[in-house]
Design goal:
The protein contains nine helices and seven strands, in the order E-E-E-H-H-H-E-E-E-E-H-H-H-H-H-H. Helix 5 runs antiparallel to helix 6 (about 170-205), helix 5 (about 130-160) runs parallel beside helix 7 and helix 7 packs antiparallel against helix 9 (about 295-315). With about 325 residues, it is α+β, with helices and mostly antiparallel strands. It starts with a strand and ends with a helix.
Amino acid sequence: MIRAYLLNNETLTHKTINVNSDVIPPNTIWIDIECPNEEEREWMHQFFTEEVPEEDDIEEIEASSRFYVDNDGIHITTLFPQRKGRETESANVLFSIRGSILISFREEEVSIIRLLRHYIKHDRLEIKNNLDILLELQDIKVESLSDYIEDSYTTLEETAQLIMSDDDDKIQELLQELIFQEGTITQIRLSLFDTRKALRFLRKTVSARLSPLHFENIDGILQDIESLLPHTQFLSDKVNFQLQTAMSYTNHKQNKIIKIFSVAAVVFMPPTLIASLYGMNFKFMPELEWKYGYLVSIIMMILSAALTYLFFKRKKWL
């Protein structure tokens, strides 16, 4: 799908482009391309004279492949995190600045771009050019990341109450939740670092076109990123601490169980030895014909087990 956003009298409207019949309307400042089909990819050649980007191209991690300038304009590929069920995943979006037009290209729906479209529809943003759109998206993204961080704080406070639980099902849920949180925090950190690189590259390459307000917005977003990064490091440490504590507590409980079985085996060793001696049935065993032999052997087995138990109890091994 291809949407064109037109700026007329400081009002932003959009139009869905039919690649077979429509031309780019005048006053277009943003062309949003989502999951293009073959016809739409062919239509994109008018903007990408060198090469129409493929999904593999926008998934590259090298800085030179994510932030560069060529004959098609200025290109910035940046991560946009979004929730899918309980997991947090990041989608790459390629932005190309060609004069007064911003082109965004992605292979999947991105919730932050959908939110921006909602703001535009309800006239909640003041957009004057294509750079305003790009900066608004980055600003919304950082705000979303801040919300994710707050959610992680709340979740980790709840999981902290479950670490010492004796319920094995709760411990299993705790470990799963901590693994999910570790993945979420990783995605948040990656997105923050990636956004910081994108904004610095943008400020460097289009500084001549940036207004004082643009510089102020970029600096404000960068300051927000710098303030959020220590939180992500703290959350990462907290997740690792809770994981280690939960695993240590689980191992401690297992060790106690194993210790009980080990002590129980040792306690019953003397009675087992006595029973084994008098169960050998050799011909010359005087005690076999002793009138009180059975009673004495039972008393010896009980007494030996009791003394062994008391010994471990005194040593505080039980």
